[in-house]
UniProtKB/TrEMBL annotation:
Domain (VOC): residue spans on this chain: 155-272
Gene3D superfamilies in alphabetical order: 2,3-Dihydroxybiphenyl 1,2-Dioxygenase, domain 1
Region of interest (Disordered), ranges: 301-323
InterPro entries membership: Glyas_Bleomycin-R_OHBP_Dase (IPR029068), Glyas_Fos-R_dOase_dom (IPR004360), VOC_core (IPR037523)
Name of the protein in its database record: VOC family protein
Domain of life: Bacteria
Length: 323
């Protein structure tokens, strides 16, 4: 079987109090906390741990300051763990042991990141998502599309890293775990999915001319485009800073909204990414602003006026009303 997706991520930060407020506002459930860290969960049980940077036993960081320290991928069975353990047994940092009462295997990828696998702890969830009406497909009848007051992320959908050698890291995930390349920026970036059938990418690797290593962003899947907007507006009302969005990616077709994350890098709400099969042929793209975003709002929307930030909102009950 293939890797199923991201089961858990761990951030290390120097400000647990701010991170606690940040991830609660983001829409995660606080499942536990102590003096050394916080445990959050998405709707399907995908876990986000935020721990103190001086907590003993943390994997080494790939960059200075608050950042992502490890990614735990889920698999279906113990037999899968056996198979992947054989594949990574010769890699740096290999281990096979019990963590929190369950078996976990892991190693260090060529970029220096702690990579782990465990039998998935995520659970199936039944959520209602908006149906879209198009010219030739009327899927929503006698039912208005939803308006969300805030987001409740379903899971961590993908992670994006700056890597020193994109070809080496891409080859590692392909050969060890069976990841499949979806699209590429030749010599600069690789979009990878866990299995031939799945969403456009679970992992994106980006090589900068500087050779910088680190986290670019972590993306959380929400139900639909309306939850991207509702979640972003709520998060904006809470006072957190937009990096870019809302907008739409032409490469994966997903709608997005990025915010700055005090625990490291950026954080993204996204929905409506392309679904691919083994018949998909990877495409090559030349990096550029219009390749990254078909359209995007620079600086975000104000959660109170519901308009672009620093733009005065309407005063009357109707747009046609004048002062």
């Amino acid at each position: 079987m293939s890797v199923l997706g991201i089961d858990q991520i761990t951030y290390a930060t120097d400000d647990l109090a701010t991170s606690k407020r940040f991830f609660a506002d983001w829409g995660l459930h606080l499942a536990g906390e102590d003096a050394q860290g916080l445990r959050f969960e998405c709707l399907n049980g995908c876990r986000v741990d935020v721990v103190a940077m001086d907590r003993p036993g943390l994997p080494a960081a790939i960059e200075e300051g608050p950042t992502l320290r490890e990614v735990v991928w889920g698999v279906e069975s113990e037999a899968d763990l056996d198979r992947y353990a054989r594949a990574i047994a010769g890699d740096p940092g290999f281990f096979d042991s019990q963590v929190e009462g369950a078996r976990r295997i892991g190693c260090t990828d060529p970029n220096g990141l702690a990579v782990r696998l465990q039998v998935s702890r995520k659970r199936d969830v039944d959520v209602t998502s908006a149906q879209m009406n198009t010219w030739n497909s009327r899927n929503r009848v006698n039912q208005p599309a939803p308006v969300y007051e805030r987001a409740t992320p379903i899971e961590v959908g993908h992670v994006v890293f700056f890597v020193a050698d994109v070809k080496a890291v891409e080859a590692f995930y392909e050969s060890r775990f069976g990841f499949v390349s979806s699209d590429r920026y030749p010599g600069r970036g690789a979009f990878m999915r866990c299995a031939p059938d799945g969403g456009h990418h679970d992992l994106f690797l980006l090589q900068l001319p500087s050779g910088k290593r680190g986290i670019n962003h972590v993306a959380f899947t929400v139900r639909d485009i309306h939850e991207v907007f509702g979640g972003g507006l709520h998060f904006s009302r809470c006072g957190w800073d937009t990096q870019l969005g809302p907008g739409r990616h032409p490469v994966s077709s997903a709608y997005f909204w990025y915010f700055r994350n005090p625990a490291g890098g950026l954080i993204e709400y996204y929905a409506d990414e392309d679904q691919l099969t083994a018949d998909w042929q990877p495409r090559d793209f030349e990096p550029g602003p219009t390749v990254f975003a078909e359209w995007a709002v620079d600086g975000g929307l104000d959660g109170n006026t519901r308009r672009q930030k620093n733009v005065e909102g309407p005063k009357g009950a109707f747009l046609t009303e004048k002062k």
